[in-house]
Amino acid sequence: MFGLGRYGGSLIRALQGSDLQVLGVDFNPELVRQWRNKGLLAFYGDAEDPEFAATLPLNQAKWVISTLPGERIGLTLLHTLEYQKYQGKIALTSHTEREMEILKNAGSDLVLLPFRDAAYEAARVLVTDFNE
């Protein structure tokens, strides 16, 4: 998981709640320290640094997930993973439909749209509550 902030942190907690093993990466050393104190295997690193990605145990990962929004970061990570011959799936994050299409066309298996996804989940909860 690249990005251990609010969105990434929420996603990590949900994945760990499903008994999935997660490794985290962030450029903020304070976030890395906080997550390590919570028991997460976390590393300080930059998603846009191809040399850093080479140090990660990618051959053991089923998914590489980036919660860092933006076309540039997503495309850089995709190219790095392709160069590293990563065989698993890739989920990237976007805040716009246009970026989502670019990232999908570039090879991302899944593009997360946090605001849209949160709205859909909120609507699902509200509809369920209304129907009870």
Q: What fold name goes in the CATH topology slot?
A: Rossmann fold
- CATH architecture name: 3-Layer(aba) Sandwich
Distance between the termini: 36 Å
CATH class bucket? Alpha Beta
Q: How would you name the CATH homologous superfamily? A: NAD(P)-binding Rossmann-like Domain
- Helix-residue proportion: 40-55%
Give the CA-based shape: globular
The whole-number mean of residue pLDDT values reads 93
Which structural class fits the helix and strand makeup?
A: alpha/beta
**Residue share in β-strands:** 15-25%
| Integer-rounded radius of gyration | 15 Å
**Total tally of structural domains:** 1
**Assembly type:** single chain
Count every beta strand, where a strand is a DSSP E run of 2 or more residues.
Answer: 5
What pattern of helices and strands is seen along the backbone? HEHEHEHEHEH
Low-pLDDT residue intervals, each spanning 5 or more residues = none
- Give the count of helical stretches: 6
**Widest beta sheet: strand line-up:** 3-4-5
For the sheet with most strands, the description reads:
3 strands, parallel
Protein name: Putative Glutathione-regulated potassium-efflux system protein KefB
InterPro entries: NAD(P)-bd_dom_sf (IPR036291), RCK_N (IPR003148)
Organism: Crocosphaera watsonii WH 0402
Pfam families: TrkA_N
